[in-house]
Amino acid sequence: MIRRWIAIGLLFAPCVCASAQAKWQIGPWVRASEQPVIQPSDATFTDPVSGKTVHWEKLHTFNPAAVVRNGKVYVLYRAEDDSGKMGLGEHVSRVGMAESSDGVHFTKLPAPVFYPAKDDQLGRENEGGTEDPRVVEAEDGTYVMTYTQWSRIRQTYTTGVATSRDLRTWVKHGPIFGGVSGGKYDKLAYKSAGIVTRLKNGRLIAAKVNGKYLMFWGEIEVRLATSDDLIHWTPIEGKDGKPVVVLHARQGKFDSAFPEMGPPPVLTERGIVVIYNARNADAHNWNGVQRSGYGDDSWKAWAAPGIAPGTYTVGEALFDARNPQKLLARTDEPVFGPKLAWESHGQYAPGTTFAEGLVWFKGKWLMYYGASDSYVGVTSAPR
Do 170 and 130 meet the contact criterion of CB atoms below 8 Å apart? Predict the structure, then answer.
């Protein structure tokens, strides 16, 4: 059954009206569909770990990557099955794929293309899954996916990397920082990684900056890393030996709880445009610190007015292409955020437009986002 959704009133919808757009920004963003473009289904799949038939996308379909291939848009999205108890992170996540000729109407494959299996990454993905993909295309046509490896058994997560020639068959290479600097980052919990791209012949292709591939990564604080091969990455460190931080939380802004990486950034004539996800402060998260209890009301002094506490919106930032550690500009207001009922009434109640996929398609930008941790939506912008 096709669900129909309508816009909800100001009582529920946060104000996400951006000020006049700067010339460096991508946008303005306008919804290309008033309904989800990908929704859960009853599709089944034989899980290679348990050997059981599971409803692999029964509960939620969200947080999508996107690429253009052979004149179509391919979206790779996180899908949660109906195993485990109800709650965030309590189900098994796999990555499904859908294709579209117009970027809005999609046909899904009946089975996931990427998932936990009996391979050398099972310990990092067991009873948790493969989550939140970002995908870029390399110059030689190889597709590179960064994704979250989540294990409820180990109660930890990391960013993994995988490669493919056809988007269907993937080779896992393990954590992006595995073994780097003598194993310095092997026990670090980290996620959300976007590899810098450049628009070339109508497609976003992984781009080198100062002779190396560049990645923006992390939640709570956004950092940098470089690579020679798109698989093995090394964090850029400061004089203190810690990863350099390029984006922080800001008091009174839409990112007052923390920023988190969005889709792969884009190298432009004006610099590197980073589209990022931002959480507004609430009792559990503010000023870049996650808190276990509600505590006092100190968080209210940090939260952005007019945006519901805990809401995820989308912002943009510009970095110097010659010195990527240098932040040149940053939006003071969200460029996109929850407005429709299905963007706030789902698994994540405060409301979410969590952007992870960006493509240039038929003369315009299309950005794909997870809505309320339950659906996939799409918004568009001119060149």
Answer: no
Please report where in the chains the tokens 């398609």 appear, as a residue: 361
List, for residues 104-129, the tens digit of each pLDDT value: 999 999 999 999 999 999 999 999 99
pLDDT at 293: 60
Per-residue confidence (pLDDT) for residue 1, from 0 to 100: 34
- Which residue carries 């955020």 as its tokens? 337
> Strand 266-268 relative to strand 197-200: parallel, antiparallel, unpaired?
parallel
Burial class (CB in 10 A: 0-12, 13-18, 19+), 194: buried
HSE-up (13 A, CA, CB side) for residue 149 = 26
Domains of the chain: 30-381 (2.115.10.20)
